[in-house]
Design goal:
Number of helices: 2
Structural class: mainly alpha
Number of strands: 0
Strand content: under 5%
Order of helices and strands: HH
Largest sheet: none
Length: 75
């Protein structure tokens, strides 16, 4: 291979590697942005909302169990 062919190969490989790095950087920025709270539309906000609902349901189930046990002991 001549010098021009080696230079062309090096430039093309550098370009491909650079494009791949930019693509990975874009994907990382996009997914990290989804993990930050932003007022209701991110994944983290949805998980926090669901977690709060689960906590409320757990309290309600505990209250139901307490009522059932109280009713059963009263018989």
């Amino acid at each position: 291979m001549s010098t021009n062919e080696w230079v062309g190969l090096a430039v093309s490989l550098t370009t491909l590697i650079g494009a791949l790095a930019i693509g990975v950087r874009h994907l990382v920025k996009y997914y990290l942005a989804e993990l930050k709270p932003n007022g209701g539309t991110s994944i983290k906000d949805k998980i926090k909302d669901i977690d709060g609902k689960v906590d409320k349901l757990e309290l309600r189930v505990d209250e139901i169990y307490a009522l059932l046990i109280k009713k059963r002991v009263g018989k």
